[in-house]
């Protein structure tokens, strides 16, 4: 457990929700709210008066500078700062895009406080928190623990070059049909790679595949 509290910045244009989150964060032992911002531009301006936070709670849909732009700015300028996305959107391409921009976790705004706390704790302790979003429900939590790392390294060594290539392409905006064309393979073969990797990696969706690839350095952010 860290002796110093985790300093958090909240970036969301909905003041009422943001203030509620701030109160919730303050109620958690080991966390403190450093400052709040209405959008990415306001976040950058606040850094003139505050030190960089340890963690940013980031909304996606905001005026002037949205979550995509803000996450990208943080990745380029404050690489040590971790980002947890809080959004109402559970679209696969949006989640993948935020992961590629450096987000360490992604949860829905209607998540229960216990899930929110777990996300904060996982990011603090292991650096990562991603939950599978299927049928708008959170099903599985993927956390980066040392025991998992050894197991995952062993799994990677058993993957073929084409499976790794498929994993890397799955991290892009390409559809499965486009991946098949790029790899000069039939869509049925690509579906086979996907289904086999879902079993091997013990995940349930494309988001799970992307998370595994990013965590294990198979796709460079």
TrEMBL record:
<dbReference type="InterPro" id="IPR039420">
    <property type="entry name" value="WalR-like"/>
</dbReference>
<dbReference type="Pfam" id="PF00072">
    <property type="entry name" value="Response_reg"/>
</dbReference>
<dbReference type="InterPro" id="IPR011006">
    <property type="entry name" value="CheY-like_superfamily"/>
</dbReference>
<keyword id="KW-0804">Transcription</keyword>
<keyword id="KW-0805">Transcription regulation</keyword>
<dbReference type="InterPro" id="IPR016032">
    <property type="entry name" value="Sig_transdc_resp-reg_C-effctor"/>
</dbReference>
<feature type="domain" description="HTH luxR-type">
    <location>
        <begin position="152"/>
        <end position="217"/>
    </location>
</feature>
<dbReference type="Pfam" id="PF00196">
    <property type="entry name" value="GerE"/>
</dbReference>
<keyword id="KW-0597">Phosphoprotein</keyword>
<feature type="modified residue" description="4-aspartylphosphate">
    <location>
        <position position="59"/>
    </location>
</feature>
<dbReference type="InterPro" id="IPR001789">
    <property type="entry name" value="Sig_transdc_resp-reg_receiver"/>
</dbReference>
<feature type="domain" description="Response regulatory">
    <location>
        <begin position="7"/>
        <end position="124"/>
    </location>
</feature>
<protein>
    <submittedName>
        <fullName>Response regulator transcription factor</fullName>
    </submittedName>
</protein>
<dbReference type="InterPro" id="IPR058245">
    <property type="entry name" value="NreC/VraR/RcsB-like_REC"/>
</dbReference>
<keyword id="KW-0238">DNA-binding</keyword>
<dbReference type="InterPro" id="IPR000792">
    <property type="entry name" value="Tscrpt_reg_LuxR_C"/>
</dbReference>
